[in-house]
Write a structure and sequence with these properties.
Elements (H helix, E strand, L loop, with lengths): L18 E3 L2 H6 L9 E3 H19 L22 H9 L10 H66 L12 E7 L5 E7 L23 E4 L9 E8 L4 E6 L4 E5 L3 E3 L13 E5 L11 E8 L9 E5 L4 E4 L4 E3 L13 H13 L2 E6 L5 E6 L2 E11 L2 E6 L6 E6 L6 H12 L5 E2 L4 H4 L4 E6 L24 E4 L20 H4 L16 H4 L3 E7 L4 E7 L5 E2 L2 H10 L26 E4 L5 E3 L12 E3 L11 E2 L4 E2 L28 H11 L26 E2 L24 E5 L5 E5 L8 E5 L2 E4 H6 L1 H4 L4 E4 L1 H9 L2 H4 L17 E2 L4 H8 L1 H12 L38 E4 L3 E2 L6 E2 L5 E7 L9 E6 L8 E4 L28
């Protein structure tokens, strides 16, 4: 339909005034785009003619055309037109200048020459006049701005004088504050402790880093010597004579003489021109909670140089297995050492030290929080120990299963700690490297877990103000724009008091099939809803308000669900019903955000080739590459060796007719609740488990059971999420360092379902046969059963013990003996006598030489679970099953790794309740901004594969630098 009205929005003519064809100059005057069917009324056309006539005269007379009145600019208008009008504009072309009569062409050339000779000087003159005019106006504005600034300064001075007169501050008072940093540490799900500490300064007695020089020994020098063994203290002595260049005759204070190698001698004082380096052989004063021998020196090796991280102390691995921090003044350098210092240490720590120095500065260590309980080896038994304190790389453990109280400082990387030992055992058995479909269970359940720490990274400055670890939107020539809702979309009616029913939304004609190219959160805005962000000035709070098609205001999810239940949910038209995941009440999420990229870099319009409900474009601005061809699938495929019964008869379904909103009555919800009920200490918030209005805010390790084809509930059921078609607008794009990645084109609210990971379900044996070809690429193990078994394994050991410190703990059933040899039993029998000796030394000030108890840094006993695993009842030849997306897959195969992930993985059961075959699905871990790459934590263990290093390029704040 043509536009039959005047092009001037401010036209005062009568509605039925005669209209004339609007020329281009007239459209420009009224700031509208030109179209052949545009029309203008007589008075408005006359006004336009008068204006251009005045401009023409000023131009002809050499006067500045800017020095006069200007036409009133019209406001920007979104024009709606049907297909006929669009075709009219597209079909309009300028008159052709081809095939003109030669005489006409010659005349045209002559006219062009005349115009150039006569008008061009006027153009140049006009350009100079306009430039001068604009310069003068700019000078006026600058002068006015300076005058305003002067007035503002005078006002500020007056206010300051008035303020000082009112309060009369003492000008001599000064306040000094120490520089501080705040460290926030989450101890558990419910407690958050904020500690404040002053940054430590560099000690005066600590020398600078440099080359460590050992001076030559001579007769008469005072030294420390190893009088008995590496397990006992070194005693002061004097060099009586030199037997050779490396051996000396030593006279101890008690008159005993002994010939010792210079590797068994240490300098008497701590004077040094440089710090002791990593691996240096030293003796140091030892102090323990159980045995306080503060004036005795024991031999060991420098395991950690002084850093800000450890308050400028050295960490020392003593030969007897103990670990401790010591200051420079309490350490003495051994006079000589072998080229390989591991050859000098006691065999008890030799292999451990060798591996430690090889891996340094990357060290696998257990991440602890206070009050956690961990199984720890003590006297060849696995016992429960409670975390009492943390000090850099050390943890103080109190053993709970001892009749005699025992507390010990231990290196957090010792494999006497069960997490380290279990990890080493699994690394020796499993040589495959694949993404696990769940993140580390221990980390998720607030248990002690292994984390690779790099000592050099601990010295990096921390940006406290910028502590947000969320990933930023990718640049790649893209920008975030705001989606414009078409003006012809339905708008809410003025509210009138009424009882809501399906008639409130019937008139907007919602149709799910028409929403394919819409952002999921803008769908309601296209069908009669509006969304506003309101600010409460008194409470300083912001909230989201939806206005429904019938004019009702709704500000929370419960009210919105009740409204949809009264309107759309009562409609039996299947897909033409709005669901709760179309609405979001977080003001930080913008439904209108849209990440747009230049179309010239779109290599494929839809990599799923319309198999997904939402198109997934492929973007590459770096080169001309496109992803390797795969067979895109929307359902998982089973290899011939995998037998899975997906007959609905073997599924239990619910009888709900209320969209399964009553979770206590829905049998599918109860299946989801059944697993967490077995672990009440882990799953404390039982009501918060599973979906909340079709969003998942916390991972459910024991799995989610959705409603299935046997259920009587409708498709709009609150327990149907992962089985629905793709709703998130995603894009596959080529990154600079990580290959292909996936980003979202719209904002994604926290807990929203993103997509699934699909592939061919294969046996573990089949996957391993192809491992040498693809190195585990695009493989993910279906390790749901292993994950649940990991929760069960040692569950009681990880439960926090009572707070009463004086409670007498007895031996627990969790203790596990490993049948030590006769030699080990002999050492165990000596333990009580050694404890007695140390108690006596602790309570007296005698100078008797004490003996260290043997406390291994590494241990050999195996941690076996007393629980019977479900996996033991399955076919051991097949092992766990694997999803292989190398050749057949979907968009989920392209997600990259991040050390600060923004999506997480959830196991979901839909078409089968066989625990070996869950659906692997991705959910948003936090609010995700449009244009941000979606990434999850592959949960690889750094250093788990020998001679294999895979660098991490996730770019997050907490990036570990290595993926493997």
């Amino acid at each position: 339909m043509s536009d039959r009205r005047c092009i001037n929005d401010y036209c005062q003519s009568k509605p039925k005034s005669k209209l004339f064809a609007a020329q281009k100059c007239m459209c420009n005057y009224y700031n509208v785009s030109y179209r052949p069917d545009r029309q203008v009324c007589g008075p408005c056309m006359q006004k336009c003619i008068i204006y251009f006539d005045r401009i023409g005269r000023r131009f002809k007379n050499g006067e500045c055309i800017l020095d006069g009145r200007y036409p009133k600019k019209q406001s920007a208008i979104i024009e709606l037109s049907d297909s006929d009008d669009d075709n009219a504009v597209d079909n309009y072309t300028e008159p052709s200048t081809e095939n003109l009569d030669p005489q006409i062409a010659e005349l045209s050339t002559s006219l062009r020459t005349i115009i150039q000779d006569t008008v061009e000087p006027l153009y140049k003159r006009q350009e100079e006049l306009c430039k001068s005019y604009l310069i003068s106006k700019k000078a006026e504005l600058v002068a006015g701005n300076e005058k305003i600034n002067e007035l503002a300064d005078q006002v500020d001075q007056s206010i300051a004088q008035l303020y000082n007169k009112l309060y009369k501050f003492d000008s001599q008072r000064k306040f000094m504050y120490d520089p501080e940093i705040s460290i926030q540490e989450n101890l558990d799900d419910d407690v958050s402790i904020i500690s404040t500490k002053t940054l430590p300064g560099f000690p005066d007695d600590l020398p600078e880093e440099g080359l460590l020089i050992r001076h030559l020994l001579k007769v008469g020098d005072k030294v420390y010597g190893m009088k008995h063994s590496q397990m006992q203290p070194w005693i002061e002595a004097t060099i009586k004579s030199a037997v050779s260049d490396t051996h000396f005759n030593i006279l101890f204070d008690d008159g005993e003489e002994k010939v010792l190698n210079y590797k068994n001698l240490a300098y008497i004082d701590a004077t040094s021109h440089a710090q002791y380096s990593l691996g240096s052989r030293v003796i140091a004063k030892f102090q323990d909670m159980n045995i306080q021998l503060t004036d005795k020196f024991y031999v060991g090796v420098i395991a950690e140089p002084p850093k800000n991280y450890n308050n400028f102390r050295y960490m020392i691995f003593f030969d007897d297995g103990y670990t401790q921090y010591a200051y420079h003044k309490n350490i003495r350098l051994v006079c000589g050492e072998s080229p390989n210092v591991c050859d000098d240490v006691h065999e008890n720590i030799r292999e451990f030290l060798k591996n430690y120095l090889y891996q340094y500065p990357e060290r696998p260590m257990v991440k602890f929080n206070k009050k956690q309980v961990v199984r720890t080896e003590l006297r060849n038994l696995w016992c429960s120990a409670k975390v009492k304190n943390l000090d850099a790389s050390l943890v103080q453990l109190k053993f709970l299963d001892m009749k005699i109280e025992h507390t010990e400082w231990m290196y957090r990387g010792s494999n006497r700690l069960s997490p380290i030992y279990n990890q080493l055992s699994s690394n020796n058995q499993d040589k495959r490297v694949r993404s696990t479909v769940l993140t580390d269970v221990n980390k998720l359940l607030n248990r002690p877990y292994i984390e690779i720490e790099n000592l050099t990274e601990n010295e990096k400055s921390v940006d406290i103000d910028n502590s947000d670890n969320t990933q930023k939107p990718q640049e790649n020539n893209g920008v975030i724009k705001s989606i414009e809702i078409p003006a012809n979309c339905p708008k809410p009616l003025p509210y009138k008091h009424h009882e809501c029913s399906h008639f409130c939304m019937l008139w907007v004609h919602y149709d799910y099939s028409q929403t394919k190219c819409m952002n999921v959160l803008t769908i309601p805005l296209h069908y009669g809803f509006t969304r506003s962000v309101l600010t409460d000035e008194k409470l300083k709070l912001r909230k989201v308000m939806y206005t429904t098609p019938c004019g009702l205001n709704i500000d929370n999810e419960n009210k919105m669900y009740n409204y949809l239940k009264l309107t759309s949910y009562g409609n039996r038209r299947g897909n033409s019903q709005m669901t709760m995941d179309l609405f979001n009440f977080d003001y930080l999420v913008n439904p209108l955000s849209w990440f747009t990229v230049p179309k010239v870099f779109i290599r494929i319009q839809d990599i799923s080739y319309e198999m997904e409900f939402k198109p997934i474009s492929v973007f590459n601005s770096l080169n001309d590459l496109v992803p390797d061809h795969i067979k895109y699938i929307t359902k998982r495929i089973f290899s011939p060796n995998v037998n899975l019964n997906i007959d609905p008869k073997f599924l239990c379904g619910c009888d709900c007719i209320d969209n399964c909103e009553d979770k206590n009555k829905c049998s599918c919800w109860q299946l989801t609740y059944e697993g967490p009920k077995n672990y009440p200490a882990i799953f404390k918030d039982h009501e918060g488990i599973g979906y909340s209005f079709k969003r998942l805010h916390k991972q459910v390790i024991t799995g989610i059971f959705e409603c299935n084809s046997n259920c009587k509930c409708k498709k709009t059921c609150l327990n149907r999420v992962v089985q629905e078609p793709l709703k998130t607008s995603l894009q596959l794009f080529l990154t600079e360092k990580k290959g292909w990645g996936v980003r979202t084109l719209t904002d994604i609210p926290k807990g929203s379902f993103v997509c699934t990971f699909l592939g061919v379900v294969r046996t573990e044996k089949d996957a391993d046969n192809d491992f040498s070809l693809n190195w585990g690429e695009y493989l993910a193990d279906l390790d749901f059963l292993e994950t649940v078994e990991e929760i069960k394994d040692g569950y009681e050991s990880y439960v926090v013990q009572p707070e009463d410190e004086s409670e007498d703990y007895t031996s627990s059933s969790d203790d596990e003996e490993f049948n030590p040899s006769w030699a080990i039993k002999k050492k165990m029998s000596m333990f009580e006598s050694r404890m007695s000796l140390r108690k006596n030394l602790q309570n007296t000030n005698t100078k008797i030489d004490g003996k260290h108890e043997l406390s291994k840094l590494n241990t050999q006993p195996k941690v076996d679970s007393k629980n019977t695993s479900l996996l033991s009842y399955l076919d051991k030849d097949r092992g766990i099953y694997t999803l292989d997306a190398k050749v057949n897959g979907n968009i989920g195969r392209y997600f990259n790794h991040s050390c600060d992930p923004n999506i997480f993985v959830q196991n979901v059961f839909i078409d089968t309740h066989d625990l070996r075959f869950p659906w692997v699905s991705y959910f948003a871990l936090s609010n995700i901004q449009a244009g941000t790459e979606l990434a999850w934590d592959y949960n690889y263990m750094i250093g788990s594969v020998k001679n294999k290093r895979l660098m991490c390029h996730c770019g997050s704040t907490n990036c570990k630098g290595r993926l493997l």
